[in-house]
Structure formats: structure tokens, C-alpha cells
Amino acid sequence: MDIYRSAIRPVLFSGLKADPEWLHQQTLSTFGWLDRHSHQPYLSWLQTRLARSYSLTDPRLSQTFWGLNFSNPIGLAAGFDKDGVASGLWHSFGFGFAELGTVTFHAQPGNPRPRLFRLPLDQAALNRMGFNNQGAAAMAATLQQRWGEQEMSQEDEATGRSREQPLAATRHTPQPFCPLGINLGKSKITPLEDAAMDYLSSFRLLKHWGDYFVVNVSSPNTPGLRSLQSSEQLDPILSALQQENTERKPLLVKIAPDLEWDAIAAILDLVQKHQLAGIIATNTTIRRDGLKTQVVSSTGNTVQSEAGGISGAPLRERSTAVIRFVWQETQGRLPIIGVGGVFTPEDAWEKITAGASLVQVYTGWIYEGPTMVSRILNGLLHKLEERGLTSISQAIGLVE
After folding, report:
1. Using an 8 Å Cβ cutoff, are 118 and 20 in contact?
2. Burial (Cβ within 10 Å: 0-12, 13-18, ≥19) of residue 39
3. Which of 55, 71, 218, 219 is catalytic?
4. Which of 16, 154, 205, 275 has the greatest number of C-beta atoms within 10 Å?
């Protein structure tokens, strides 16, 4: 019996009637405390116990991309750990990698509350968080404290420039820790015409601490942000970042599921032009068709009238279609991180065989609980055995 799904989830979702964002904050606060004090013997033992309970290690699930080893293809999507406070804990829950953020150069409170809603009838969530985070300088300080010895002056923090010769210029990922991505967004107060400098300022502060970086131009919750997906606006952002990217950190772009095929093709042209490492498909959707939920219970408003992006099961089919399109357009040469509606091994397998090299989860993890990752990995191993495959990499883009 899964205690989370049978007992804990009903209490959290229905019994307590607590604000989902408050529950998230309490959970993340606990995780952050565990990570900060992981050097203490008892808490180190606890993390080991977590890893034994929730992790699954098998060489058939391991892959290497961009010089990084991913012990398995299932990662935590951006949005859960916005400020990187629990960056050293995610491997203990079985994740093969984790993506921090979205982080912006300027700290910002995000949109007014309430701004996060569960839609249980649809196995979905509606959010309009608005990139609430403490800012790139705060994340850099947090990751420095957790992973390195780099010192940063007040002037460096103010200008967004890192030292030319930092003491620990690159975060080394010791085993069993997993690769960490950092998702970059535009500050709300920054005009669209200054977006390139905003992204660049964040990257300068954080480039030593992420194993890969993501340009997020697809959230529906920052006014005008999705317009940055157009070629004429995205091009200078990517150009500025790659010029600064002297360490050649893998740089990816995250796209919306609501783009037309020609718009996605245009982004892929830019990906090739700027030699990006990959693409993340997809962010949340602004579509509302097909939802079973008619009224958001906590507000009394119709789901159509509530602003924000939908994640979870309603996104599953469209995100997989985008993955398949990108795979076909790039002839399988561009690594894709697939995200959207992954709850089961079948969901993950569908995205991998559509062309995803790696798969991220968020909403599914909230609904399914901490045993979800190991269940998916077990299921993927069964899929490999059924088809006589010896590595998960052989399933990428597999025509069945």
C-alpha cells in the first residue's frame, strides 16, 4: 500500500483545506533545513534512508549528455525549488537530475495570492505564480554555501558580474549527487527591450553553479514574456548568453505548448544558429478545453476565468506531440527534455519514444508522492526488457 496516496494525499488535498502554496512552502522549508544540516550524522543517515527507499540504480537507465552523467532519465522540473534551497536533497528522492528556478535577476514577490490551485478531477494544477523568487544573487549565495567556496563582493552582486578568477569557479557534482540545471526568467520590472541584459545579468551570477541552464521565455504568468519566443526577440537573448558562456555550459530553451508548428520550427533554427544544447518541451498551457473542472472551489470562479497556466494530465498529449515534432524536425540530433503530464511509466515511455532524452515531473510528483520516481523507473526497466533493449537511450525516438 502506498501510504502517501491512500492516507497522506487525501488529508493534504481535502482534509486540511490548506492553501496549496502554503503546503508547498512548508514542505520546501523542511527539505531546505534537511539539506543545510546534512553534515550532521543523524540527518546524513536520514538522507541515506530516503535514498534507499526512493532511489533505483540500474546501469540501463544511465545516460551521458553534455559531459554530464544522468543516473536515470527522470528529473524534477523547474518551479518546485525556485531558490535552490534544497539542491543537495533531490537525488535522495531518486531524481536523476533537478532543475532549480525559475530565477530572475531582480528579486520579486510574484503575482497576488491565491495563485496556485489544484484541479483533482483533471489531475492538474493551475498556477499564476509570476516567477516569485529571491533573485539571482540570493540563489548564487545559497549555492555557494552548499557547493563551493566562491566569494562575491557587494559590487559583484550589484552589477551581476562574477569574479574573473573565483576560488571555486565550477560546481563539481560528487556522486551520488545529481546534475543541477538553473532555469532563468525575465524580471517583471525589466522592459521587454532590455530582456537580453536581464537574462545575461542572472547568468553572470549563476554560471559557475549550474550544470546546465535554461532560457525560460514561455511562462504565461509574466506579461509579454511569451512574445520573447519570436525569432527577432529571442535571437539577441541567446546571442548575449552564448557570448558570455565561455565555459560552454549547456544552454537550452523552454518553449510553450501553445505555439504553432511554424513558430516552433523558427525557434529550432535559432537553436541551431546559436548551437544550443537542447530544448525543453513544454511549459504550462493557457488552453482550457477538455477540462472536467468547471469551477475552482477555493475562489468560486470558473476555471476559464482564472488566469494562469495548466500543468499535469491535460498537458500530456500536446507536450508529447511537440516533442515528436522537434525530434522529427531535428532528425533526432537535438536532446529534448520532455515535461508535461507524466504520472506513470507509460507516460514517461511515451515521451521517450516520441524523442525525449530526459523527462521531468512536477505536478505528477505532487499527486503521486515520493515513491513515484522509483515506480516510473521500475516500469521503464520492464519496458526495456519486454522489447529486448539494453539501454534507455535505445528507446529515444523508438518507432513501435
Report:
1. yes
2. exposed
3. 219
4. 205
Q: What is the pLDDT of residue 242?
A: 98
> Computed from CA positions of residues 357, 370, 123, 20, in that sequence, does the dihedral angle turn out positive or negative?
negative
State yes or no: pLDDT of 163 exceeds 60.
no
Give the span between the Cα atoms of 182 and 359, in whole angstroms. Answer: 16
The answer to whether the beta carbons of residues 310 and 126 sit under 8 Å apart is yes
CA distances from residue 97 to 163, 176, 282 in whole angstroms, order as listed: 27, 11, 17
Q: Is the pLDDT of residue 307 over 70?
A: yes
pLDDT band at 164 (very low <50, low <70, confident <90, very high): very low
* Residue indicated by cell numbers 526488457: 385
Annotation marks residue 219 as catalytic: yes
Query: Helices 345-354 & 372-386, crossing angle to 10 degrees?
Result: 60
**Is the separation of the CB atoms in 303 and 294 below 8 Å?**
yes
Cα dist. 377→6, 54, 96, 149, 337 in Å? 21, 10, 10, 35, 16
Q: How many residues does the chain have?
A: 400
The predicted pLDDT at position 162 comes to: 40
pLDDT digits (tens, 9 = 90+) for 71-115: 999 999 999 999 999 999 999 999 999 999 999 999 999 999 999
